[in-house]
Amino acid sequence: MKLATKYIHAGVEPDPSTGAIMTPIFQTSTYVQQAPGKNKGYEYARTQNPTRHALEKALAAIENGKHGICFGSGMAAADAVIRLLKPGDEVICTNDLYGGSYRLFTKIFAPYGIKFHFIGMQKAPEISKYINEHTKLMWVETPTNPLMNIIDIAACASVAKQHHVRLCVDNTFASPYLQNPIDLGADIVVHSATKYLGGHSDVVHGVVIVNEDDMAEKLHFIQNSCGAVPGPHDCWLVLRGIKTLHVRMKQHCINGEIVAHFLRNHPKVNKVYWCGFEDHPNHEIAKKQMRGYGGMMSFTLKNNSMEAAFNVLSSTKLFSLAESLGGVESLIGHPASMTHASIPREERIKNGLEDSLIRLSVGIEDADDLKADLAQAIG
Ligand SMILES: *Cc1c(COP(=O)(O)O)cnc(C)c1O
């Protein structure tokens, strides 16, 4: 089945009781049983919900995985993956990863005795140096947030396989439309469905997708035992979002390219981070593993101060100043004071996250209007 067809049909069957073409929102906490233990496969809604099941099937299908396990947020999905580990285990992560993941790893799980190494993963062979007998997981984000570094998923997968380590890819920035990590050898894919999958900035949701049956079983056990499940209405919103993912992503890619080139030619802009530029350090890898370059980008100003960045951030009219990304509307953000505020300044600068760095989530409005808005804000 081709992508567009899959996005519209995967996981969704007409409702058996009415024929409703769209899976209903099963807003129930429990299910009536005919006799103790005799039921229709549904007992209690933390454990099973038909709206959630339809979404889990759809998400697995569009990531070319076997199992989808949904959670109440992207962070809850990441949390579930780390819960597969035990004290003493070690994880190797990209060093410019999402601030919330950094916080989860260092503030919640490190005190429980799981060790995290944050390293640059652009050169896959160097990763081996950090692997020892305790290493159980590699955690990759690509493109990275917010510097749009590209990590070679297939190369990481081969290092992981060689050392019997599992590879998890946070695929939020790319979305399943631009990149399918399981096809490239990853074992686990995590999404914040809050972003491109939902696509309309109206839901917080997360998912883990895996192929291995016993890992899926463990994740379902964690989902049910820890209870960070999404509500049925939220599942329905993501299910609805997926149906237009391909159409939205095509436009994000078109607008992203236009805005990236506009910024690059602007006299007050210093550097533009966008993986579609041919001189991006890992453009060839992006070309190989992605179907397009998307609408996420960052840029710094020639006046590299927080103040100069704040002036731009408070002057845009179409680009709304907000956390998050991946919705139909354009957003602008300041990683140093917003998404990455929990990373100490010294470490942030060391990783190239400058004070004036501004991140854009380019939406699917008319690109001329977006350019005009940035032009007046940058001045
Ligand atoms: C937003 C985001 C998350 C966290 O997801 P929530 O749904 O906000 O909990 C994780 N990783 C990346 C790359 C994100 O952008």
Helix content: 25-40%
Report how far apart the termini are: 48 Å
Number of strands: 12
The radius of gyration is 21 Å
Reading side by side through the largest sheet, how are the strands ordered? 1-7-6-5-4-2-3
Listing every helix as H and every strand as E from the N terminus to the C terminus, the arrangement reads: HHEHEHEEHEHEEHHHEHEHEEHEH
Amount of beta strand = 15-25%
Quickly give the CATH architecture of the largest domain: 3-Layer(aba) Sandwich
CATH superfamily of the largest domain, by name, is Type I PLP-dependent aspartate aminotransferase-like (Major domain)
* Structure ligands: pyridoxal-5'-phosphate
Account of the protein in words:
The protein has 379 residues and is α/β, with parallel strands linked by helices. The chain folds into 2 domains: 3-242, Aspartate Aminotransferase, domain 2, CATH 3.40.640.10; 245-378, Aspartate Aminotransferase, domain 1 (Alpha-Beta Complex), CATH 3.90.1150.10. The chain is 35% helix and 15% strand. It contains 13 helices and 12 strands. It has helices at residues 3-9, 50-62, 74-82, 99-109, 153-162, 175-178, 213-226, 232-242, 245-264, 283-289, 306-313, 345-350, 367-378; strands spanning 67-71, 90-94, 115-119, 135-141, 166-170, 188-192, 206-210, 269-273, 296-301, 320-321, 331-333, 358-361. The mean pLDDT is 96.
Outline of the structure:
This protein has helices at residues 3-9, 50-62, 74-82, 99-109, 153-162, 175-178, 213-226, 232-242, 245-264, 283-289, 306-313, 345-350, 367-378, and strands at residues 67-71, 90-94, 115-119, 135-141, 166-170, 188-192, 206-210, 269-273, 296-301, 320-321, 331-333, 358-361.
